[in-house]
Amino acid sequence: MVFLHLQVILQSNFSGPNFPLITIFDNVCAQKKLLNDVFDINELKLVIGWSMGGQQAFQWASYFPDMVKNMISMCGHAKTTDHTFVF
């Protein structure tokens, strides 16, 4: 089961090239919904991530600057290049 634009998508409904595109932003939106709705957390002192987690940290800080006070991205980057896409 995955989330796409906060909608639950069952993996068995899709295969191969028909599988929906899931972005880092989709993951960050799901994380934000969990923090806000379940844990009632509305401010993050620090968002930190390594590699793909670093990409999520960039998304958090750029899309939710009022919520994220500080961000550290280690070995992460704002955009996936062709070279790093295979990882």
Shape assignment: flat
Give the class from helix and strand content and strand pairing: alpha+beta
Model regions low in confidence, pLDDT < 50 over at least 5 residues: none
- SSE pattern, N- to C-terminal: EEHEHEH
Strand order of the largest sheet: 1-2
Oligomeric assembly:
single chain
Average pLDDT across residues? 83
Our count of helices gives 3
Structure description:
- The protein is 36% helix and 16% strand.
- It contains 3 helices and 4 strands, in the order ββαβαβα.
- Helix 1 (24-38) crosses helix 2.
- It has helices at 24-38, 52-63, 82-85, and strands at 2-4, 7-9, 47-50, 71-74.
- The strands form 2 sheets. The protein has a two-stranded antiparallel ribbon with strand order 1-2.
- It is of the alpha+beta class.
- The model has no long low-confidence stretch (mean pLDDT 83).
- It has one domain (2-85).
- It is flat.
Describe the secondary structure blueprint for this structure:
Layout: E1 2-4, E2 7-9, H1 24-38, E3 47-50, H2 52-63, E4 71-74, H3 82-85
Parallel strand pairs: 3-4
Antiparallel strand pairs: 1-2
Helix pairs in contact: 1-2
Describe this structure in a few short sentences.
By secondary structure, the protein is α+β, with helices and mostly antiparallel strands.
Key terms for this structure?
4 strands, alpha+beta, 87 residues, 36% helix, 3 helices
